[in-house]
Amino acid sequence: MRYFFLLLILVPVLSEAQIKEVKYLSGIDNENTVGWDFFCTGGRNSGVWTKIQVPSHWEQQGFGSYNYGRDYKTYGKNFRFADEQGFYKHSFTVPISWKGKRIFIVFEGSMTDTEVKINGKSAGAKHQGAFYRFKYDITDKLIASKQNLLEVTVSKMSSDESVNNAERLADYWVLGGIFRPVLLEAVPVDFIDHIAIDAKADGSFAMNAFLNAAKPGQIVTAEVRDAQDRVVASASAVVKDTIVKLNTMLKNPLLWTAETPNLYKVIVSLRQGSKQVYKTSEKFGFRTIEIRKQDGIYLNGVKIKMKGVNRHVWWPETGRSVNAKIDLMDVKLIREMNMNAVRCSHYPPDKSFLNICDSLGLYVLDELAGWQKAYSTKAGAPLVKEMVIRDANHPSIIFWSNGNEGGHNKELDDDYGIYDLSNRPVIHAHHRPGNVFNGIDCNHYEDYYSTKKILADSSIYMPTEFLHAQDDGGAAAALNEFWELHWNEKLGAGGFIWDLADEGLVRTDLNNIIDVNGVNAPDGIVGPHREKEGSFNAIREIYSPVKIQLRSLPPSFNGTIPVENRYHFTNINQCKFYWALVNYRKPGDVFAGYDVLKKGEAVSPDILPGGKQGELKLSLPDDWRNYDALVLSVTDPFSSLLYKWTWNVKTNGQLLSGIVVKEDTAAVSYQETDSTVVLKGGQVSITLSKLNGQLTGVRNMASDPISFAKGPVMVSGNAVSTSVKLSKEENAVVAEVSYSGDLKYAKWKIFPTGWVSLEYSYELNGSYPFAGISFSYPENFVLGAKWLGKGPYRVWKNRLQGVTNNVWNNAYNNTQAGSSPWIFPEFKGYFADITWMEFNTVEGKFTVATPDNGLYVRLFDFYALSGKQPHPELPVGNLSFLDAIPPIGTKLALNISANTSQLGPQSEPNKISGITKRTLYFYFGLPKPGDMKKQFTMPAVNELF
């Protein structure tokens, strides 16, 4: 058990200056804690005084009982939440130097009702509300130079029913305890309690300084300093009241946006004559927020659109008790997805998170708790005050959200402006159509077609939740079409995907498993420990502000690539573009990936923000067509990678040169029995059933039989084999299977090298979830797969983004997104644009390849969404070679299979008309030495290439 004690005293710049001094009584975060005495009234380890680490949730320290906020639904009307209380005791001393100062005890967050005593005396009224910073003046209760006793009673359930309704009857884990730090603050007798700033894009600076007392002759001064700590503006005012107002102007300030997070600092001093009585400082940014009704959201006079995500404050081992490293990790993940906004659902976050959003650049919706029921005015008013006073000077916060999905107490709407000098807009994050507030409709989980109707109406539309990301559904699925709607429509303001991370909790009562409470909490784009799921990179591509729509290189390609600038404030010429010509590694090579053979940097085009279009011109060498692929990477003005595209230069047939080898001196032959035909070439033989035309066995004489069989069968449509015809064709032997129904023929050939080809043709007319053929192979025999194609993540019909051409290598795993283990990428799924795929099994290796474009390979049994029936349905067999794959729906579609199509055109079933032809090549076992060139170079690790 670690004990942590931190005494932090800020050293003044001037000897006479007095500033706030801080002493932590708890640890500073979930990794640096302090042991306090503790007694829990119920559940595990209750009824005895022991030790607990602070800050923490007591459940995660082995005390009490667990509850998910929707347990009342799970367990029925007689269910009662665990209502334990935690009694805390901690002794402390106050520095001698604090004599004559005002001393406050501060709680950054405590769940849920908190009563505080100092040396047996009440520090003040019971605090009700879990997520808010509160403090008490305890100056007159302390004993100088002696041990002081802090006693805290924390009640998990509030005595105010509206607090329980707002915070605990919710779709998230509800925990107990002092989960954020506890500290002492010492200030001189005369001090500035807090300041409120309004810094506009035109350079105007206004500030209110809130004093504890007004004394004649005192003066408040403010110095505005830039990032180089130069004084760029100043103001002063004589104290006449406890609120002192100051104004000044800065010419041509560097403005704050998510793209340009320019910060300034104001140093505020309280002076008595020549003496500096007190000094404080605050960071801020110059920016102006406007809602122009029936138009859009404007920042600094520019219309902006939200590429946002919802975020819970969360870490599996410690719940809502986190640290600045976790906050930084989350901001970096959000920015890596090319998002520009975050909603703090459903409560204000740690202050460090907001500091990081300020400095790295994210638009923030700071939200009062109120999941689907609101605080009463009596309970909510002080919490609004606490939230706004703490957070008002963060330039990243552009909206206050007054509760979620009906948890809006409209009597509190006007309270935010009382404490926020900049008077930011207030919104209602709701799930009821037509509930427009302040000109913005935030309605949740509209489908694509209802979204189009809202955008054609008169209100700005900014869904604060959409495309629910449970398991592998939602998130990036259908996002491309939703984003195009919002980007192109006047009233589209973007939105916030639900949500960032699976809310998996390490259960100390269940052998430390990670519990996501069934289908309730696995809603993340990333896993509990921020494991990246398939939607992560898809969002990154869809939201890239450098928009490149080129899917493949046209025959006339001359190095020119169309580019659209979807930044709001940044010219593309501030980005950097890098190109590379590469050759892919082969199936028999040791490593996956490609070799970079030539590379260069392109001249960044001058393309203005806001959707303007232009061209990127690459100065490629004359022999560029001799390479396998072209790679293009783009970095933002801060040198962070935005996205990387890879386009094949060669056709699939050219890429298979030297891999699929047909010519050899070995013999080919066939044999026929009453029930089977056997084709032999080199060391390989395949056996087909004359009864159904299906493959029944394959063998390489150099190894064991390989259990690849039971195909081809159609995954959509019907086919019945009618005959099998044997023949010789040049250097191959052929078995052609004829069918009645939708499969026209399947023509098997084996070549002297042992390579096998399968040519087939089918005809479908109508709507189908998938199209192609299947085989079967024992999944438990599989060790992994290596392939040339899109990867490394699986795709769906309505989530084809975020995967790039390369040689990928995935080890087998049985991951289903949203449940343990969170091993990504998933091995199983649909994989796109496959040229070849090599399977590694306990029986040996076998390879499948195609010279044709657009092949999807389905690997084994999996699903996107768990529920009454896993969604979507799967083709027959378990190894499929497909020309069309299904879309996925979201948790919010009650009948998922029926309602997936409402997510947009890309989410509809495949409309197929006519004949499809394809050729597959197979090699069962390892090809003979010399058929494949061995390479032992290490794979490239540069993120750009």
From TrEMBL:
SUPFAM superfamilies in UniProt: (Trans)glycosidases, beta-Galactosidase/glucuronidase domain, Galactose mutarotase-like, Galactose-binding domain-like
Glycoside hydrolase family 2 catalytic domain boundaries: 290-508
InterPro entries: Bact_Beta-galactosidase, Beta-gal/glucu_dom_sf, Gal_mutarotase_sf_dom, Galactose-bd-like_sf, GH, GH-type_carb-bd, Glyco_hydro_2, Glyco_hydro_2_cat
Residues of the Glycoside hydrolase family 2 immunoglobulin-like beta-sandwich domain: 220-287
All residue ranges annotated as the Glycosyl hydrolases family 2 sugar binding domain in the record: 51-188
Reactions the enzyme catalyzes: Hydrolysis of terminal non-reducing beta-D-galactose residues in beta-D-galactosides
Keywords: Calcium, Glycosidase, Hydrolase
Pfam families membership: Glyco_hydro_2, Glyco_hydro_2_C, Glyco_hydro_2_N
Record GO terms (molecular function): hydrolase activity
Essential cofactor(s): Ca(2+)
Its EC number(s): 3.2.1.23
Top-rank EC class of the record's enzyme: hydrolase
Similarity comment: family membership: Belongs to the glycosyl hydrolase 2 family.
Assembly and oligomerization: Monomer.
Official protein name in the record: Beta-galactosidase
Originating organism: Terrimonas ginsenosidimutans
Phylogenetic lineage: Bacteria, Pseudomonadati, Bacteroidota, Chitinophagia, Chitinophagales
